[in-house]
Amino acid sequence: MQRNFLLASILGLSAMVASTPTFAEPVREHRIVNLQAETSRDVQNDEMQATLYTELNNTNPTTLARDTAQIVNKAMDLAKAYPSVKVSSGTQSTYPIYSDKNKLTGWRGRAEIQLKTSDFKAGSELIAQLQSNMQLEAVNFSVSAQQRLKVENELLTDITKIFRERASLLQNAWGASKYELVEMNITSSNDEPRPYPMMMRMAKAEASDAVPAQAVQSGNSKVRVQANGSIQLQ
């Protein structure tokens, strides 16, 4: 009898638990919107880079290496007269030359030097002098790291203002009372002009055939700052 009463009590309690209503959690409305913005500025290029090289042939690799080194050393000595121009060694290579019958006929050596300067007049004069023994491969102009950082810092304020204005427009368009910033990533880039074309001298110039210093126009580069992020409308 006692056992039957205990069983009935358990069944009754189970029924009460089963009949207790359950309440689902309210669905939260996120309303997250992704945004992007961009701003840019044209900046005058204030740095020049140039590559000059010598390329020689010889049947004796030792003689070839000596002649190549003499030309590069002479170029380095000439550059000492232009302290505002930074000069560094570039790539150097030596490789064999074969005939149509796959027979070794000689060696070819190539050596480069790199120039970098913000003094365009000095850079042009040095390039002209170096072309008496070397050939000019390319001249490039770009925005220096210091100038680019200065402009990017100024554009950070602009991109933030643009992003906030777009967020406010969306807030009003959706009839939201306010918005909160969820995340924002800022990146920068710059579009530099193509290498400045200059005529290469394919033969060693004589003293009376000196190359005149060429006037150059550095042009502009476009510095860009982009912002990508998301906001939550409330």
UniProtKB/TrEMBL annotation:
<protein>
    <submittedName>
        <fullName>DUF541 domain-containing protein</fullName>
    </submittedName>
</protein>
<dbReference type="GO" id="GO:0006974">
    <property type="term" value="P:DNA damage response"/>
</dbReference>
<keyword id="KW-0732">Signal</keyword>
<dbReference type="Pfam" id="PF04402">
    <property type="entry name" value="SIMPL"/>
</dbReference>
<feature type="signal peptide">
    <location>
        <begin position="1"/>
        <end position="24"/>
    </location>
</feature>
<dbReference type="InterPro" id="IPR007497">
    <property type="entry name" value="SIMPL/DUF541"/>
</dbReference>
<dbReference type="InterPro" id="IPR052022">
    <property type="entry name" value="26kDa_periplasmic_antigen"/>
</dbReference>
